[in-house]
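Fig. S4 source data, part A: sequence.
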Amino acid sequence: MIIGACEWIALPELGIERLRARVDTGAKSCALHASSIETFTRDGLEWVRFLVHLGHPEARSEKVCEARLKTLRSVRSTSGEAEQRVTIRTPLIIGHLSWMVDVTLTDRDKMRYRMLLGRKAMENHALVYPARTFLQGKPRLDATV
């Protein structure tokens, strides 16, 4: 799949049908703008509950999401600071294709895009054409993992 510098994505297990994502081959991992991040236990497993802010530049809506906690990971931010981030694993849809990705949750409030798509998520799935944007159109929610 050929993707542009920005693409529409969906995170169906989180109930997010459409979100603009910045494609960044310089970033290793994916990052999703989230706040009010809290961990809890359900059926003996660790889960995380968080708010996703949809819309830009100001959040037009907020969505409460829950996902199984995969791990806590140390990530170096764009400012060079290392921070501990909650990581979840969830299906991602771009265009008509879907696959599983690891996503870290962080404060991206000052960033233009609520989601950053890192190179590990694209590996074996997508090539980037950086001169173009939104090559895949809106995500097809009937895509299968």
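Fig. S4 source data, part B ends here. Residues 12 and 91 are 7 Å apart (CA to CA).
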